[in-house]
Amino acid sequence: MARIVSLSRHHQEDHRHKNIGWLRASVLGANDGLLSTASLLTGVAAGRASHEQILLAGAAALVAGAFAMAAGEYVSVSSQADTQRADLEIERRELKKSPDKELLELRDIYMARGLDEALAQQVAAQLMQRDALAAHARDELGLTEMATARPGEAALASAASFVCGALFPVLIAAFVLHSEVLPALYTTTILLLVILGAVAAKAGGASMIKGALRVLFWGALSMVSTTLIGYLLGHAVI
């Protein structure tokens, strides 16, 4: 028995899914910041805009995009948090109203997972005695600490990562010669998209090559499309 306890203390598995929450918000924000700002600036640059106009467009895109990402993530995750609180309140009322039925409900969940009736009954009773609401939140509703919605954290992560991504195109617009802005945007953005896709895939335990290629395909498509639109409209107007 002591050997089993000792082994359990030393055998700690590092699963990837615990990173999903912050990884999703961070990767989405950085990718969106980089790609949306770079695509906007390639379109503006292809449309014969001046150096000052390109820089102004980049700065505006960075600020507006960061607030948009933060607001969107906050509203989305807040709705998720409201739903979680509502579900927990329902469980709290049911536990107070019909504890015996809730015990049977928890027992049936464990039986469906493979425990025999007697053991399932014993496990359900012990868990409910310790913390009934936590047991039902975890095993009936699927609400764990990792899955708990945190609107503030999600909003800050999205905004900060968006700024980190958008900063590179804006710096190019600010410091690269006007005649070199377009090729510099393409080169830098494609390189960063490949790195971002590979790192995100690595953190999630997926193929780095596939992750990089996915981001590269959609990034290149976006930039080419906005460049073409900017070129056509810019030449048509001018």
UniProtKB/TrEMBL annotation:
Q: What is any one of the record's Gene Ontology cellular component terms? A: endomembrane system
What's in the keyword line of the UniProt record?
A: Membrane, Transmembrane, Transmembrane helix
Topological type in the membrane: Multi-pass membrane protein
Please report the name of this protein according to its UniProt entry: VIT family protein
What residue intervals traverse the membrane? 21-42, 54-75, 154-177, 183-203, 215-234
Q: What is its main location?
A: membrane
Compartments, record wording: Endomembrane system
List, in alphabetical order, the Gene Ontology terms for molecular function in this entry.
manganese ion transmembrane transporter activity
Per the UniProt entry, what are the Gene Ontology biological process annotations, in alphabetical order?
intracellular manganese ion homeostasis
Task: Specify the taxonomic lineage.
Answer: Bacteria, Pseudomonadati, Pseudomonadota, Acidithiobacillia, Acidithiobacillales
